Amino acid sequence: MLPYNNSSCLSTEVSDFILNCFVRSPSWQHWLSLPLSILFLLAMGANAILLITIQLEASLHEPMYYLLGLLSLLDIVLCLTVIPKVLAIFWFDLRSISFSTCFLQMFIMNNFLPMESCTFLAMAYDRYVAICKPLYYPTIITDHFVAKAVLFILARNTFLTAPIPILSARLHYCGKNIIENCICANLSVSKLSCDNVSLNKIYQLIVAWTLLGSDLVLIFISYILILRAILRLKAKGAAAKALSTCGSHFILILFFSTILLVFVFTHMAKKKVSPDIPILLNVLHHVIPAALNPIVYGVRTQEIKEGIRKLLRRVTERCK
To answer: Membrane-spanning regions, if any (predicted)?
Structure first.
């Protein structure tokens, strides 16, 4: 492992990186480790229960719940990719990460976050059809639709985000090996290179705004149309029920997008805020939505709650 060096590039290639996680604010590690651990356990447990419930309960084998299962799967992968390493740094000071592991983490983060955004879009479309075109729902939102949506989500995001870690991995790392972050974020890693990283920055910026920006716009349009349809509902209590369900979904999507936008703006204004703030937001963005998604999307749904009750009864009966 090479030490950090501010001088001109060395001839020896870097084989490991050091994650310089909150070294400027060491007290953060102490008070962050407990809530981060709780959020991680909540996210893993809640999403695992949701996946198992959808798998075992035949009544939940419907398109809407398949999309919810996909969201839970993405949340689990993102949490496992980021949080265990951050906790290992907090608890055991294990800051070293190999070259290949670093770029694998970068690939998963850059790929799965837009996948999650695209899944939100598919779920927003599902709610739009259910409320605005209820008579056509069974013919539009089918298992075939979900299969095509999943293939689109995988293909679009993998094709557009795969070049990000590839471009970074092809750079020449010849001296500096300390990443000023808790994770292998593309820009944090690529700036350690001796090469010109302008292409990396431009490509990531274009892809991020193209994927996440377009998803967010389409989600907003979907919920505006949903809100307009809800206000026209005349059945007693129908509007309130629909507004409650879609409102909680929209708030969660807004939170997902807001924390990402705050991270972008604080990173741009890094001279005016502590450098650790964007790092903190980046870490939290991989665990807070994952902990909230199964609660807002799953537990608030009557069919999911009934499925969890059945699952718990099965477990209780087997334990007797």
So the answer is: 32-53, 65-91, 103-123, 206-230, 242-265, 277-299
Q: Could you give the C-alpha distances from 224 to 11, 138, 151, 230, 289, in angstroms and in order?
A: 57, 22, 27, 10, 22
Tokens of 129: 């059809």
CA gap 190, 186 in Å, rounded: 6
List the structure tokens of 315.
């477990």
Q: Where are the domains of the chain?
A: 16-319
pLDDT tens-digit map of 56-96: 888 899 999 999 999 999 999 999 999 999 999 999 989 99
Spatial contact of 56 and 215, defined as CB atoms under 8 Å apart: no
Tell me the CATH architecture of domain 16-319: Up-down Bundle (1.20)
pTM here is 0.88
